[in-house]
């Protein structure tokens, strides 16, 4: 006599012959009570009850996360779960962990969300400790990247004029809803931004935020929904539901496109597929050995994150967050002024081979400086010769000035800066752009970070062409070619994004290819330009060719339906040139 009322859609249930399994995995009365406590706002009581029996309350993990974020209590939940992980407990089914991470609210603070992903992974069910460490590390990275993107999008929604976002197809205003034909769906009845060209930014599967349209205050704030259909526009709320049906509300609503949850969901699903226990739909052991074992450095970093007592139970970044908070409280005014003054010295010259992440580092620097409060906006403006040099005499200085002014309050990143000076050194247009740039950098050095990047050999010529450049950019970062081991790790990360793995033979074969590529680029007798290594770009090209060859190989295979392992696995012959 299984009672329907004990379960809700999406819950996982565990059955046993004698009934001892009860409502394990989220379908029993314990999970239902925990959910009710979280929804009522008693998050502390909910997580306390959850911590006593994570196995039977696993289905409530998503509700705890959702309402803790809404009430700004996620760090309390993280510490409580960390304390649970330090003792004895019956682990949470991995499917409950996966579902909770998939429903990560977009308004979650990035570091807190990453902490939750790491500590929740430590109380889940695994076949081995290595699988736990692997999932915790990769899930943390995925959550941090997704929530960082969410924070940027939400900041744009708050600060950009609605008209500008409507022109890009990212926002719809003056929206009223009617009840959809299917259960849980809502249909946009009337709205501003109804033409196809204005709505090109919203597509099926997109994640959008539904909020009040400024003329009234909606108690639910912004709720996330998924686009189920474009014409007519039909939405379905993803997790947290409105207090009453939106078609019964008198005010009008606003719809904003949010961050790309589809890509994030693919990564989380891939991690579940690759590392979940066999009993919960994970991969077979022979295939898991190829990809799922984390590197020794990852294992060492995670194991080293703990210490004795209570602190050992808390996640690495949670501890760092508290250290940062204490440091900020102890900081005196002179230290604050010193930090603010240090922005005037953030003029950096970055040089190195192609594909080594110079642009990525520039973006990270922009995010870090914004987080430290040293930049007003923290945005990144990328430019090259074409953005600075005009086609007619006298216009280059004006064009360069416009680019610099657009970057004020943030970071200006100039890629391939050596192109401003021709090989013969007689490029008058490029010289005008460079001279104007140096003058503006000096004028706005208190409100601008400038990073110029390029290949090492060409950048030396640039410095020789303008003696004042070296003195104005006192900090130089030299990027080296990636080692074969680093390139292999980059390849694994790229494959993870596409839910693919390497067979054991393919992994060894790819390692040999990358070693040969590195040796050829470093050997003068080979006649190959050292910059031809390509680093990360070369890895991407190799994998793109391998995926095309895999598709052809699968199409030519005889037999019926392809197995999951065949669809997910790259073989050595796929990597042959």
What structural keywords apply?
577 residues, alpha/beta, six-stranded antiparallel beta barrel, five-stranded parallel β-sheet, 23 helices, 48% helix, globular, disordered N terminus
Unreliable stretches covering 5 or more consecutive residues: 1-5, 16-26, 194-200, 282-337, 339-345
Distance between the termini: 61 Å
* Proportion of helical residues: 40-55%
The total beta strand count reads 13
Overall pLDDT: 75
The proportion of strand residues reads 5-15%
Count the helices. How many?
Answer: 23
Morphology call: globular
Radius of gyration: 27 Å
Strand order of the largest sheet: 1-2-5-4-3-6
Class by SSE composition: alpha/beta
| Main beta sheet strand tally, sense and closure | 6 strands, antiparallel, barrel
Structural write-up:
There is one protein chain. This protein is of the alpha/beta class and 577 residues long. The chain has 23 helices and 13 strands. The strands form 3 sheets. The chain has a 6-stranded antiparallel beta barrel with strand order 1-2-5-4-3-6. Strands 8-9-10-7-11 form a 5-stranded parallel sheet, sandwiched between helices. Strands 12-13 form a two-stranded parallel ribbon. Strand 9, helix 17 (428-443) and strand 10 (449-454) form a beta-alpha-beta unit. The protein is globular and about 80 Å long. The termini are far apart.
């Amino acid at each position: 006599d299984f009672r329907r009322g004990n379960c809700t859609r999406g819950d996982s249930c565990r059955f046993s012959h004698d009934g001892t399994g009860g409502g394990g995995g989220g379908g029993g009365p314990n999970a239902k009570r925990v959910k009710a406590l979280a929804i009522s706002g008693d998050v502390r009581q909910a997580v306390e009850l959850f911590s006593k029996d994570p196995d039977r309350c696993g289905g409530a993990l998503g509700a705890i996360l959702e309402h803790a974020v809404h009430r700004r209590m996620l760090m309390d939940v993280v510490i409580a779960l960390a304390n649970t992980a330090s003792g004895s407990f019956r682990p949470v089914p991995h499917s409950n962990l996966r579902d909770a991470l998939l429903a990560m609210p977009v308004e979650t603070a990035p570091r807190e969300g990453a902490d939750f992903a790491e500590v929740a992974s430590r109380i889940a069910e695994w076949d081995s400790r290595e699988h736990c460490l692997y999932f915790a590390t990769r899930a943390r990275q995925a959550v941090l990247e997704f929530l960082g993107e969410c924070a940027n999008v939400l900041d744009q929604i708050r600060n950009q004029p609605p008209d500008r976002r409507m022109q890009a197809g990212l926002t719809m205003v003056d929206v009223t809803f009617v009840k959809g034909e299917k259960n849980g769906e809502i249909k946009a009845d009337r709205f501003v931004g109804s033409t196809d060209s204005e709505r090109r930014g919203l597509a099926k599967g997109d994640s959008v935020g539904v909020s009040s349209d400024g003329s009234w205050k909606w108690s639910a704030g912004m709720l996330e929904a998924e686009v189920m259909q474009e014409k007519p526009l039909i939405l379905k709320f993803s997790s947290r539901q409105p207090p009453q049906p939106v078609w019964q509300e008198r005010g009008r609503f606003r719809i904003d496109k949010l961050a790309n949850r589809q890509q994030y969901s693919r990564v989380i699903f891939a991690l579940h597929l690759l590392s979940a226990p066999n009993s919960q739909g994970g991969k077979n052991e022979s295939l898991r050995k190829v990809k799922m074992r984390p590197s020794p450095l990852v294992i060492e970093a995670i194991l080293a994150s703990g210490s004795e007592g209570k602190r050992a139970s808390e996640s690495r970044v949670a501890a760092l967050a508290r250290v940062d908070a204490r440091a900020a409280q102890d900081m005196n005014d002179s230290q604050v002024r010193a930090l603010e003054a240090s922005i005037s010295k953030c003029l950096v010259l970055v040089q190195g081979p192609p594909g080594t992440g110079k642009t990525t580092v520039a973006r990270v620097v922009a995010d870090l400086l914004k987080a430290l409060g040293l930049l007003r906006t923290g945005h990144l403006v990328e430019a090259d010769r074409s953005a600075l040099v005009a086609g007619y005499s006298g216009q280059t200085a004006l064009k360069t000035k416009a680019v610099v002014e657009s970057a004020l309050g943030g970071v200006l990143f100039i890629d391939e800066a050596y192109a401003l000076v021709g090989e013969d050194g007689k490029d008058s247009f490029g010289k005008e752009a460079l001279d104007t740039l140096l003058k503006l950098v000096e004028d706005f050095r208190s409100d601008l970070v400038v990073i110029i990047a390029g290949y090492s050999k060409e950048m030396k010529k640039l410095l020789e062409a303008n003696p004042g450049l070296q003195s104005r950019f006192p900090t130089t970062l030299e990027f080296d070619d990636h080692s074969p081991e680093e390139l292999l790790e980059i390849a694994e990360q790229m494959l993870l994004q596409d839910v693919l793995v390497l067979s054991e033979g393919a992994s060894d074969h790819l390692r040999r290819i990358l070693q040969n590529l590195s040796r050829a680029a470093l050997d003068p007798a080979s006649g190959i330009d050292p910059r031809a290594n390509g680093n990360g770009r070369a890895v991407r090209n190799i994998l793109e060719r391998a995926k095309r060859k895999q598709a052809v190989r699968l199409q030519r295979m005889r037999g019926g339906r392809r197995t999951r392992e065949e669809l997910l696995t790259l073989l050595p012959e796929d990597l042959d040139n």
